[in-house]
Amino acid sequence: MFTGIVQGLAEITRIEKKPGLHTLQIHFPTGAMENVAVGASVAINGVCLTVVQQESRDTICFDVMMETLSCTGLGKLRHGDRVNFERAARIGDEIGGHILSGHVHTQARVRALEKPTNNYRLTFQVDTAWMKYIFPKGFIAIDGASLTVAETGEDTFTVYLIPETLRVTRFALLEEGDMVNIEVDSQTQAIVDTLARLGYDGSMPPRSKY
Predict the structure, then answer these.
(1) PROSITE patterns in the record, alphabetically (predicted)?
(2) Residues 141 and 4: beta-carbon distance below 8 Å
């Protein structure tokens, strides 16, 4: 489980590619991986990965299998790329964002990037099938960062970022056309899907009790 509070940026230092499997070597800020162990979970750009090897105090290796490579942006990472990271939450930790599984649902493309005075506005385009789970003022995780949706369109949604978020995450590095990983809010998804099964999604009249 993760909280969506990105703990910083790490750097891809090596990628070993085999058929259907990439091994990522990632260098983290000093002390960020203190007491990490093989088998521990770390979210990289919102994707829950398992530590498979610790090469030094701050350099960790992760295996990324074929399904993850095809469904997320991890397969397109290159040497030197910077990624968001968050270690798994522990019992008693403050939940500053919202509860995440680290299981990416889909990807979105940066549609627009605007910088009005003292603001940073990002608009993303996503497959319309996922828009039923994205609402203004609702939660969404973008590359593992818990954010609040500001506005929505037919196939777009917009978020605003404060300077601290830009400092800690990779969002300041994004350009128009870049892809990001998306995890929709699990509670919203459960409610929407339950209502749809009961016929309250507008596709059919509600079921009669009789």
Answers:
(1) LUMAZINE_BIND
(2) yes
pLDDT level of residue 145 (50, 70, 90 thresholds): very high
State the Cα–Cα distance between residues 146 and 5, nearest whole angstrom.
Answer: 6
The verdict on residue 206 lying in a domain is no
Q: Domain for residue 204, yes or no?
A: no
Task: Give me the residue label for tokens 């469904």.
Answer: 71
Residue with tokens 């942006």: 73
Hey, what amino acid is at 174? L
Closest by CA position to 60, among listed 51, 48, 72: 51
pLDDT tens digits, residue range 73-89? 999 999 999 999 999 98
pTM score of the predicted model:
0.91
> Is 74 a member of any domain?
yes
Spatial distance between the Cα atoms of 210 and 187, rounded to a whole number of angstroms: 30
28 is in which domain, residue-wise? 8-87
pLDDT of residue 203: 52
Rounded to the nearest angstrom, the gap between the alpha carbon of residue 158 and the centroid of all alpha carbons in its chain is 15
Q: In the Cβ-directed half-sphere of 127, how many Cα atoms lie within 13 Å?
A: 9
**The amino acid at 63:** D
| CATH number of the domain to which 60 belongs | 2.40.30.20
Is 113 in the same domain as 41?
A: no
The answer to whether 1 and 100 are in contact (CB under 8 A) is yes
> In this structure, what token pair is assigned to residue 72?
């997320």
Q: Check: CB of residue 114 under 8 Å from CB of residue 121.
A: yes
